[in-house]
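Deliverable D4.2, example record:
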Amino acid sequence: MPRVSGVDGPIQVQGPDGAIVEFPAGTSHEEMTTALRKHYGVPAQPPLPPLPPGYKLDPPAAVPRLAENELAHVRFYRKTLGRTAVSRPAIDFDAGIKAAAQAAGLPADFDPFADDMSVLLGGMLFEDVGVTAYAGAAPLIKSKEFVEAAAGILAVEAYHMGMARSQLYLMGEKAWNAANGISDARDQLDGGQDKDQGIRMNGKANVVPSTPDAIAFRRTPQEVLHIVYLTEKQGVSKGGFYPNGMNGVLRST
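Output generated by the structure prediction step:
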């Protein structure tokens, strides 16, 4: 039985919980790939024109910590699952970004590493989804200890996205439109229910996407797969960022 030192002690994962734990592990590889490429893999490009007053964060300065967080999440999952851990799924980052940008109405040559705004938009492609994925998985997990750990990881993902959404809002109309396009594309892909919100709604800032009760949206694993596979079709087991599909039990829309 896999064990790992968790928030307050060893965590045990068995039975159906194993499949639930595997799923965010696979999507965390995608987030980790993005963060590590931002930090280590791509040189900075010329910056955008001057930004509005009040914009102070230098996103690249924040990226090392975000990359450390995502790498720590992946290592946590692998320790938790032990010998039952599935291998890292194949990720076609470039093709996935190109298709996602097209779906969101971004420029055909969108580069998530080109400048500050693009770094934040690239992060928004995944981090918002991560928050809703953890919120949706929590009711399915039987182990109290792992629910607690998952809640802690969800909080970190939400911190990441709160930073990105607030900074994008301060960048002005161009960023609003791009971020709202990403939100609309995700909402189109994941099914009939409205489980996404842009960073500007009804003429006001919307840093925290939530239900009328101020609760984070919940997505099922299938709804998450629709987004990362970039398809509205049912019964699809690969595509988008995952050319060979996710590894593990939960792999089909």
